[in-house]
Amino acid sequence: MKAHLFLNAPKALLYIDPFTNQILEFNNKASALFAIDLTLKKAPKLTCLTATKIFNGCLDKLIHFTQQVLEQGEAWSNDLFIIVNGDKVYLDITASVVDNKLLFSCQDAKLTYSRYHQAIAQAQYQAGIVHWNANETIFEEIERQNQLLLSAVGDGIYGVDVNGNTTFVNKAAEHILGWTKAELVGKNIHDVIHHSHENGEHYKDVECPIYAAFKDGEIHSVDDEVFWKKDGIPVAVEYKSTPVTENGLLIGAVVIFRDITERKNIQGKLLNAIKEIDTLKHRLEMDNAYLLEELNADFNHHQIIGQSINVQQMVNRIELVGATNANVLITGESGTGKELIARAIHEVSERKARPLIRVNCAAIPAELFESEFFGHVKGAFSGAVADRVGRFELADGATIFLDEVGEIPIQLQGKLLRVLQEQQFERVGESKTRHVDVRVISATNQNLQSLVRQQKFREDLYFRLNVFPIHSPALRERAEDIPLLAKHFIDKVCVSLNRPQPHVSLAQMQFLTQYDWPGNIRELENIIERQIILAKSNKISFTFLAKESLKNKSYANKTFTDDLFSDAPISHDRLEDQSISHDHFLKTTIVPPLMSASAHKLLEKANVENALRQCKGKIYGEDGAAEILGLKPTTLSSRLKKYGLNKNDYIN
Ligand SMILES: Nc1ncnc2c1ncn2[C@@H]1O[C@H](COP(=O)(O)OP(=O)(O)OP(=O)(O)O)[C@@H](O)[C@H]1O
């Protein structure tokens, strides 16, 4: 049995007599390893088979090892080798002393090593599986969390491969566009959601920023485009297409997008609000500039004073028409308060939040009318150095007051008619048509119907302007209002001059009421101002008016001689003592009241000419003819027209 075990042991065994060098026994594995002829076994003694023969390439090592085994009882070596087919084959040898002989247990060292490494690999593999299992669980958890995150984010996310086919769709993307993951995965993303621009024009895929990312490897961000929903409706989006690489190779892109509809709506509203603010700001600036002009022109905002039937009827008509949008034509002599009426109409209308825009047609040179009414663009004519807003544009949403409307040149009347009919016009030098909503109130002291007959005023324009006529009665037609008006002006002047209220006796008031006021309410106002300045010890006197009436009567009987056509214009400084400075007196024109109409005109014309001569053609400002005559410069301008006078003829 023992012999059988020895013979079939799994390693090559050599039983060696260290003293005779002879191999006493060897088993089957040894026979194979050392290529020992098995027939030797049958020989009585293995005399021919020696240890040194087997290990003859490394005898020194064999001797050393043998001694080690003998000394220690056992030893191990991997230094010894044998030659097999010319190659060294190192052996892994464990040896021990058995009955004073040596038992070598040998094995090809390569086999030992390979088993050793196999064993290590096995051990590592065993350990690795456990490790891998753990990693796999972690990866699964990360993946699960990633999926949760990708589903939870509010932005839509698509994954696409290098062919543009969808590989991934998150919940938000499904929600925003309505395409499910199943409907999109594997489909070309551009063809499904990005095929057209917002205006419906085809979106070429070569221009698609989503694709661009996996073509050029760059991130592509787009602020404002549309993706198309499943129901065919475009959704405004901003998106970013980021390239995805693996081992340096572009393998696709991730598209992250956001629905910006709400934001765009808010932006739109904001833009509209800003535009509206700009328009309002612009309008406010225009209004301010206009109001400043008016302030500089020393405009006053009196209320209509008077209780006479004539005034009551007039006020009724103002209230009646005020609330409507009807055009109003106010007629009446100069200084009867036509402008006051226009303001009152505007004030009772719904347009009162905006200023009344006043245009004095008598003061505009013919060639500038169109620009004044409708504005012009820079360079439209020489002198047009900047764009200018016309009065009609300024009055958009408000009321325009065309004072002295009879002065509008016939050639411009057609354009004015168009604004009245269509509320449309163009600035001078511009083809763009502008639309306005303007109410027109006009005033005249001329007989427009007579102008129509003379073909100086268009009949159709006259009817357009005269939708609702209001007549402003002359002061002589409302004489009973004189005390009220006088009190009103005394209060006003005393406040502005910081004077104490003067005492007006009944007798003095009678002088006022009995005087025939050719210059109307403006004349009354000016005389009161002058007399307050002249008043001594708080007493105001109007006795001179009686003298004046008498004088006027004598004027009426007199032929027009030296006095009427003298060089000095007729003014209040000729009516009173000269103890007060000239400036205070030159406020009004007193025209004798009892003259015939033609004599009146002749005198008025002569008076204007004298004033022009004295002022060397200067109309406006200090020492101007208007100031000397006590007229508004605009009224004087219209009188120049009326009498065919040219201020330039008086320049010298
Ligand atoms: N009823 C009134 N109550 C108080 N003040 C009045 C009244 N009527 C006119 N006035 C005053 O008389 C002056 C002249 O009035 P206004 O300028 O309105 O007259 P007008 O008819 O427009 O004159 P013109 O034809 O010369 O332009 C103004 O100072 C105005 O305030």
Write the layout of secondary structure elements.
Blueprint: H1 2-7, E1 12-16, E2 23-26, H2 28-34, H3 51-54, H4 59-72, E3 74-77, E4 81-84, E5 87-98, E6 101-108, H5 109-152, E7 156-161, E8 166-169, H6 171-177, H7 181-184, H8 189-193, H9 209-216, E9 220-228, E10 234-246, E11 249-259, H10 261-296, H11 309-322, E12 328-331, H12 338-348, E13 356-360, H13 369-374, E14 375-376, E15 388-389, H14 391-394, E16 399-403, H15 410-422, E17 424-426, E18 433-435, E19 439-444, H16 448-453, H17 459-465, E20 468-471, H18 482-497, H19 506-514, H20 520-534, H21 544-557, H22 582-585, H23 597-614, H24 625-629, H25 633-642
Helix pairs in contact: 11-12, 15-17, 18-20
Bound molecules: adenosine-5'-triphosphate (ATP).
Adenosine-5'-triphosphate is lined by residues 300, 302, 304-306, 332, 334-340, 403, 445, 485, 488, 521-522, 525, 632, 635.
Pfam families: AAA_lid_14, PAS, Sigma54_activat
Protein name: PAS domain S-box protein
Domain PAS: 142-194
Structural account:
There is one protein chain. Strands 1, 2, 3, 4, 5 and 6 form a six-stranded antiparallel beta sheet that branches. It contains 25 helices and 20 strands. It is of the alpha+beta class and 652 residues long. It is rod-shaped, with a radius of gyration of 60 Å. It folds into four domains: 113 residues, Beta-Lactamase; 106 residues, PAS domain (Beta-Lactamase, 2-Layer Sandwich); 172 residues, Rossmann fold, CATH 3.40.50.300; 172 residues, Helicase, Ruva Protein, domain 3. It comes from Colwellia echini. InterPro entries: AAA+_ATPase, AAA_lid_NorR, P-loop_NTPase, PAS, PAS-assoc_C, PAS-like_dom_sf, PAS_fold, Sigma_54_int. This is PAS domain S-box protein.
